[in-house]
């Protein structure tokens, strides 16, 4: 995950249950001849008595009695079992995390945003002396794993970590803690980013101390790269000091062997795809690694970047306001304008099905000026109508995941 630019997450489309009907029928029938007798022939001598309902035949060598119903409909006894659609156990959702304890979700693939809550909707960040960057309710990161979202809150003040299985009801699982700069999930483990780290192996229910980062500066971002066996990568920055460390388990941390001086500066997010991990900087460059974070290469992209990077399954996307920069290998980048041309893409998330959601980038563009966007290709964007979301505190993180149906997103 990351920290440093705005985020939003949301709820939405990814999987639905299927229906099936299994019908089993058992039938028992008695054959009718509708008043006509059955002729039963025995050899050598037959003596037969016939009635309208039964036929009895006797022979000198054997006696055969046959009872056949000749009137009335065929009687069928049927047992039928019908199976309806399987129960819905997960629903897709986008979630966005903002300052002052704000969360909001989208259950309809980014078309609308609901469940907008915060510590206090009446206050306004960075007005009347309210520093939302440095308080207990500063939004500092989202991670998703196995139908569970874990969020971290607070910066420069006692912080907290919360979890939710439906993206609506949150339980505080760590309180009055040192603040964490983002959170990540991988290999069944959540790792909260500080020195010392905190780790959870039961989907955020309980936490234990991990290990020291040994960087001596502020931590800024964390992400899990599924490179080979997988590992966590952390960036740190204080003034001109920068660092990148990595760990297979969130406990034992090792500095990157090769780190250009720009790498680790003004980190606004990380992404991984096709064997390449990247760390994007608001300063306009990315740093790329092909060995899970041990060695890094500096790659200039633009004058500045406004969004965290996204891996689409075939390319990396990162935005510079209304310009999309895209690359399959994070080495060679192509640029193209997005539509409408007056958008500035900030925090962003993408669903596995390919839907992008984003919030507008910029300083003091919240509340009445806040905008939410949606796209199916990352190039052509829809600006959501004001009634489709609530303009409120700044958005700093966005994510997508599956959760249990419930108070957040009901089963369809």
Compose a concise summary of this entry:
By secondary structure, this protein is an all-beta fold. The protein is built from no helices and 32 strands.
Describe it.
The protein is mainly β and 412 residues long. It is 0% helix and 38% strand. The chain has no helices and 32 strands. It has strands at 10-11, 46-50, 55-59, 63-66, 91-98, 103-106, 114-117, 139-144, 149-153, 159-164, 171-177, 183-186, 189-192, 198-200, 208-209, 219-225, 231-238, 241-247, 254-255, 267-273, 276-281, 285-289, 297-300, 310-311, 316-320, 323-327, 334-337, 345-350, 356-360, 372-375, 381-383, 395-403. A hairpin with a 5-residue loop joins β30 and β31 (381-383). The model is unreliable at 1-72 (pLDDT under 50).
Protein traits:
412 residues; mainly beta; Neuraminidase; four-stranded antiparallel β-sheet
What secondary-structure arrangement, pairings included, does this model have?
Blueprint: E1 10-11, E2 46-50, E3 55-59, E4 63-66, E5 91-98, E6 103-106, E7 114-117, E8 139-144, E9 149-153, E10 159-164, E11 171-177, E12 183-186, E13 189-192, E14 198-200, E15 208-209, E16 219-225, E17 231-238, E18 241-247, E19 254-255, E20 267-273, E21 276-281, E22 285-289, E23 297-300, E24 310-311, E25 316-320, E26 323-327, E27 334-337, E28 345-350, E29 356-360, E30 372-375, E31 381-383, E32 395-403
Antiparallel strand pairs: 1-5, 2-3, 3-4, 5-6, 5-32, 6-7, 8-9, 9-10, 10-11, 12-13, 13-14, 14-15, 16-17, 17-18, 18-19, 20-21, 21-22, 22-23, 24-25, 25-26, 26-27, 28-29, 29-30, 30-31
């Amino acid at each position: 995950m990351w920290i440093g630019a705005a985020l939003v997450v949301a709820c939405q489309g990814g999987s639905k249950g299927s229906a099936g009907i299994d019908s089993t029928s058992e039938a028992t029938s008695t054959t009718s001849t509708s008043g006509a007798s059955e002729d039963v022939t025995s050899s050598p001598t037959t003596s037969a008595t016939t009635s309208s309902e039964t036929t009895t035949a006797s022979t000198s060598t054997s006696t055969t009695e046959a009872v056949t119903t000749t009137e009335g409909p065929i009687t069928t006894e049927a047992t039928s079992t019908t199976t309806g659609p399987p129960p819905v156990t997960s629903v897709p959702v986008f979630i966005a995390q903002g300052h002052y304890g704000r969360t909001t979700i989208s259950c309809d693939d980014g078309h609308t945003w609901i469940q907008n809550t915060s510590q206090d909707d009446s206050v306004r960040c960075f007005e009347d002396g309210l520093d939302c960057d440095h308080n207990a309710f500063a939004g500092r990161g989202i991670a998703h794993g196995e139908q569970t979202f874990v969020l971290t809150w607070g910066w420069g003040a006692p912080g907290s970590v919360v979890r939710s299985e439906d993206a609506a009801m949150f339980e505080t699982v760590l309180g009055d803690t040192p603040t964490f700069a983002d959170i990540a999930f991988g290999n069944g483990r959540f790792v909260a980013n500080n020195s010392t780290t905190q780790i959870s192996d039961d989907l955020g229910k309980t936490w234990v101390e991990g290990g020291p980062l040994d960087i001596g500066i502020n931590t800024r971002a964390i992400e899990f790269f599924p490179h080979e066996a997988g590992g966590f990568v952390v960036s740190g920055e204080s003034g001109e000091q920068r660092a990148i460390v990595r760990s297979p388990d969130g406990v034992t941390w090792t500095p990157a062997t090769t780190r250009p001086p720009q790498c680790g500066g003004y980190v606004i997010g990380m992404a991984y795809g096709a064997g390449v991990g990247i760390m994007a900087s608001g300063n306009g460059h990315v740093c790329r690694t092909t060995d899970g974070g041990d060695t890094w290469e500096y790659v200039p992209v633009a004058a500045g970047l406004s969004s965290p990077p996204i891996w689409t399954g075939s390319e990396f996307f990162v935005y510079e306001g209304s310009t999309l920069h895209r690359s399959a290998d994070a080495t060679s980048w192509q640029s193209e304008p997005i539509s409408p041309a007056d958008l500035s893409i900030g925090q962003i998330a993408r669903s596995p099905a390919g839907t992008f959601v984003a919030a507008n980038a910029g300083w003091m563009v919240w509340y009445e000026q806040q905008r939410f966007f949606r796209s199916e290709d990352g190039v052509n964007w829809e600006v959501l109508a004001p009634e489709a979301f609530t303009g409120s505190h700044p958005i700093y993180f966005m994510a997508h995941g599956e959760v249990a149906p419930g108070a957040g997103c009901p089963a369809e």
